[in-house]
Amino acid sequence: MDMDGHSVIPTDAGRLLAVQLLSPVFPTGAFAYSQGLEYAMDSGIIRDGATLSAWIADVLEYGTGWSDAVILSLCLRPGADYPALDDLARAMCLTAERLTETVEQGTAFVAMAGPLTATEAAPAALPVAVGRACARLELPRREVIGLYLHGLAFNLIQAAVRFMPLGQAEGQRLLAALSPQILNIAAQAADATESNLGGCAIGAEIAQARHETMTTRIFRT
Description:
Helix content: 55-70%
Structural class: mainly alpha
Radius of gyration: 17 Å
Distance between the termini: 40 Å
Number of strands: 0
CATH architecture: Orthogonal Bundle
Oligomer: single chain
Largest sheet: none
């Protein structure tokens, strides 16, 4: 039992369940979103593997990746105030599409993860939904955060693979190359506080906003 009287999942089983929940194939509809990446590719800002890798690295360290990682970390701690953290997660979204993305994915996540983790299925932003479900798995925060960020990077790379001439093999190489950065961010976020929230991925935020007015688009964001 945890501090609130809820049963916890043994560590080994919890680790496998965390991999399942945070796998890119877990049905949250993540494949339909690109966080403005589609606009960046369509406008020529991202044109090859090198520019894609640099873009995703900045998103992870200075943009959505960092803010989601900190909020997820706060949600994984005992006594976390999930409603307040959900409000905070929504407030961190600077565009309408970004808000839609995190809420819709979070809603889909809790619908599937709730029965698997015996946690409530109230709608929430994605990092809050993940933190609420994974808090019972008795895993180190940095491990859960690392899996979350790995899935985020994978989804962005797969969006690029579908949009531009970037093969699956190169996509996998790019993902592997991002691993040290993902682990470093996860370690920092594991002990971060609300005061560490913030970001400066200005190009990505502008791309998210401009994506809303694209005439033809493949992705929802």
